[in-house]
C-alpha cells in the first residue's frame, strides 16, 4: 500500500486523534476526563505497554481527582481495569485499536505550584504470564501443545501454529510462563506476542511474517521522517551446527544450517553469512557456530540449528526509524523504505513500534531488522 492510499483513508493525516476506553466507555468523551497524551509500545517477545496522562481533574474542594461527570477518577482508573487504546485521525469511534490491556501502575505528584496530574500505565493481556515463576513437565508433547495449555490456563485466546516435533519431555524450570514460551519460540524460530488487531486479544505463537506483503511504502522526506540503519558483519557465521546424543542408538546427532537458508532469504540476494563467506574465501576458515543442546531426533537438531542461524542473521542489519503516525505500523509486519540509496532502500521486518499522540501530533517510532542484502 502506498502513502497516498492511506492519506485518503485518514483525511490527509489532518486531524490526529486518540481515544482511551475504560470498560468500553470513552474516558474523554463519555466520562469527561481530560487526557493530554497517550503512548503505546508494541514489541515482539515481550508484553506491550501503554501510558496516558490525565490532567485538570484535581478538585481542591473535594481533595480528590474528579471527572467532569462527578465521578472519582481513581475509581474509574482502578488497578486491573480493562483499557483499550485507539489512535488515528478524525472520528474517535472508528479509529483503529492500537492495543488492549489492564492498568497496573498509577503515579502522580503534588507540586508546589500548579495542579497534580495522573500518569496511568499498564500492559497488554500477556501481563499474567510475566509474573511469578512456575515449574511444569510435559511428556511426549509438541512445543505448541505446551503453549496452548498455558494459554488455556490463563484464559487467553491463542493463535498457535503447530510445531513439528513431539518431545519426549519438555521442562519449565522456575521460569515465568512468558519466559518459558519465549524460549520455546526461539528454538522453533517462532515469534510470540499478543495480537490486538482482531475483535479480541490473542496470544500469537508462530513463524515470523517476514515473507508477507509490505503494509506501506514510506520514502525519506515523504512519510518517513528519519532513519538510522546499522549493518554489521561482526558476529555473523557461515553455518550453525547443533550436537547431541541419541541415548537409544548411542549415536551422535548433528543438526546443520548454512548461510543462505535464513528465514526471509531470497535466492537472488546474498544473506549476511554468504556475504561474510565472500570476504573469507578459504572455506576452511569460515566461522561455524557449534552448539551442544539436548535434542533427540535429527529433525529437531536441524530445526534448532536453523533457529540459531536466523537469530544470528537478524543482528546483521538493524535500524531505528520515525514516521508520521500510522496505526498500520506494528511488529511482525513488513514495511518498504525508499529514497535511502543502496543498500538501505528495501523491505524491512518490524520488531517494535511505539505510537504516541501529544501536543506535537501523532508519530510512530519503530525498530526494524533484515536478514538479506
Characteristics:
373 residues; alpha+beta; Phage tail proteins - horseshoe like beta roll fold; Phage tail protein beta-alpha-beta fold; Elongation Factor Tu (Ef-tu), domain 3; six-stranded mixed β-barrel; three-stranded mixed beta sheet; 7 helices; globular
Describe the structure.
- With 373 residues, this protein is an alpha+beta fold.
- The protein folds into 4 domains: 13-124, Phage tail proteins - horseshoe like beta roll fold (Roll), CATH 2.30.300.10; 129-206, Baseplate protein-like domains (Phage tail protein beta-alpha-beta fold, 3-Layer(bab) Sandwich), CATH 3.55.50.10; 214-231 and 316-370, Bacteriophage T4, Gp27, baseplate hub, domain 3 (Elongation Factor Tu (Ef-tu), domain 3), CATH 2.40.30; 239-314, no CATH class.
- 17% of the residues lie in helices and 43% in strands.
- It contains 7 helices and 23 strands.
- It has helices at residues 3-9, 73-76, 127-130, 143-153, 177-188, 272-279, 298-314; strands at 16-22, 25-26, 35-43, 49-54, 58-59, 64-65, 82-89, 97-108, 118-123, 134-142, 158-160, 166-175, 191-195, 202-206, 214-220, 223-231, 239-246, 251-258, 288-292, 317-324, 334-338, 346-358, 361-370.
- A 6-stranded mixed barrel has the order 15-16-20-23-22-21. Strands 11-14-13 form a 3-stranded mixed sheet.
- A hairpin with a 5-residue loop joins strand 3 (35-43) and strand 4.
Amino acid at each position: 500500500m502506498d502513502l497516498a492510499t492511506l492519506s485518503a483513508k485518514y483525511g490527509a493525516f489532518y486531524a490526529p486523534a486518540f481515544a482511551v476506553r475504560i470498560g468500553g466507555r470513552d474516558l474523554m468523551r463519555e466520562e469527561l476526563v481530560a487526557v493530554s497524551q497517550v503512548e503505546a509500545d508494541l514489541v515482539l517477545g515481550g508484553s506491550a505497554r501503554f501510558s496516558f496522562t490525565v490532567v485538570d481533574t484535581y478538585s481542591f474542594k473535594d481533595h480528590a481527582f474528579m471527572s467532569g461527570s462527578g465521578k472519582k477518577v481513581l475509581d474509574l482508573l482502578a488497578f486491573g481495569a480493562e483499557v483499550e487504546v485507539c489512535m488515528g485521525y478524525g472520528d474517535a469511534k472508528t479509529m483503529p485499536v492500537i492495543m488492549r490491556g489492564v492498568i497496573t501502575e498509577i503515579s502522580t505528584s503534588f507540586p508546589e505550584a500548579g495542579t497534580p496530574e495522573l500518569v496511568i500505565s499498564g500492559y497488554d493481556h500477556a501481563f499474567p504470564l510475566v509474573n511469578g515463576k512456575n515449574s511444569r513437565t510435559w511428556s511426549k508433547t509438541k512445543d505448541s501443545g505446551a503453549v496452548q495449555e498455558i494459554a488455556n490456563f490463563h484464559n487467553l485466546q491463542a493463535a498457535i501454529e503447530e510445531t513439528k516435533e513431539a518431545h519426549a519431555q519438555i521442562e519449565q524450570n522456575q521460569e515465568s510462563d512468558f519466559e518459558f514460551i519465549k524460549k520455546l519460540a526461539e528454538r522453533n524460530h517462532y515469534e510470540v506476542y499478543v495480537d490486538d488487531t482482531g475483535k479480541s486479544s490473542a496470544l500469537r505463537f508462530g513463524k515470523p511474517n517476514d515473507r508477507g506483503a509490505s503494509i506501506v511504502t514510506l520514502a525519506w522526506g515523504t512519510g518517513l521522517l528519519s532513519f538510522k540503519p546499522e549493518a554489521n558483519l561482526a558476529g555473523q557465521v557461515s553455518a550453525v551446527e547443533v550436537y547431541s546424543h541419541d541415548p537409544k542408538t548411542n549415536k551422535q546427532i548433528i543438526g546443520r544450517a548454512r548461510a543462505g537458508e535464513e528465514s526471509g532469504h531470497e535466492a537472488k540476494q546474498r544473506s549476511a553469512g554468504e556475504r561474510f563467506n565472500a570476504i573469507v574465501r578459504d572455506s576452511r576458515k569460515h566461522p561455524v557456530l557449534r552448539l551442544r543442546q539436548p535434542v533427540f531426533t535429527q529433525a529437531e537438531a536441524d530445526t534448532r540449528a536453523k533457529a540459531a542461524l536466523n537469530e544470528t542473521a537478524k543482528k546483521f542489519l538493524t535500524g531505528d526509524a520515525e514516521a508520521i503516525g500510522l496505526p498500520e505500523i506494528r511488529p511482525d509486519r513488513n514495511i518498504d523504505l525508499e529514497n535511502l540509496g543502496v543498500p538501505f532502500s528495501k523491505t524491512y521486518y518490524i520488531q517494535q513500534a511505539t505510537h504516541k499522540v501529544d501536543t506535537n501530533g501523532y508519530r510512530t517510532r519503530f525498530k526494524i531488522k533484515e536478514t538479506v542484502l
